[in-house]
Amino acid sequence: MDISQKQILIETKKLNKQFSNKFIVNSVINDLDINIYRNDFTVIMGKSGSGKSTLLYCLSGMDSVTRGNIILNNKDITLLSQDKLVKLRRKHLGFVFQQMNLMTNLSILENVTLPGYLIHKNKNIKEKGMEMLARVGISDLAYRMPHQVSGGQQQRAAIARALINEPDILFCDEPTGSLNSSSSEAVMDILLDCNENNHSILMVTHDVKTALRADRIIYIDDGSVKGEIYLEKYRKDKNLNDRNDMVQKWLEEMEW
Ligand SMILES: Nc1ncnc2c1ncn2[C@@H]1O[C@H](COP(=O)(O)OP(=O)(O)OP(=O)(O)O)[C@@H](O)[C@H]1O
Ligand SMILES: [Mg+2]
Fold it and tell me: What average pLDDT is seen over the chain?
């Protein structure tokens, strides 16, 4: 893999994040330097409490950083005003979490179109919402309420919602964490499809089977990068045994 050919989408420089109160300072991200490349499907792994979610929140501008820089699309987002950051987030970034956070009082379609209204305020947003629902295979559920669909279907709706503004990058924090294996497969297929359609993906997962689909896995330990591994582009028809062995061996080296 020739990294010099790749275009950097996110770059961090000596990133630090501390949570403090009057008793303690908890340093969660420690001088972290990382590059995330455009159009890559990047996975972040690491032990519980190693700072994966915190990193995702910082990189996506949802949480402030203590020190250091985050350059996203050639812009240092640590220097942006809250207002500009919110606009950038809505327009260029998508988020999918383990808990789908759908609005319980809105239909599936309304949930999906909500971020679209916030950006475009236009009339075609409903069509776009239906297009997104079709993309994730739940067009028939558009007018149901979130509690009337399954967990896997809610997660698909959350992905459709994240995609409505065609984000440059999709941040996913354990998007399959609360799903059974067939729903997980379906969600992963959708994410791969998004990636093939030029959305970069940065996903945290504990699940090796899920991580095997990535182009690159980064291992985080105590808030810094311990190691990384590049994989060949995933192909559904290819036998995964060798890939699995290689990643398992690497994870052992990482003391996972
Ligand atoms: N708001 C907060 N205030 C104080 N400490 C926090 C806060 N959020 C997270 N932490 C601490 O930061 C550390 C990293 O948390 P984080 O949620 O990023 O871990 P993680 O790698 O995502 O873990 P998991 O795999 O369990 O989801 C943990 O020790 C956690 O207790
Ligand atoms: Mg987490």
Answer: 92
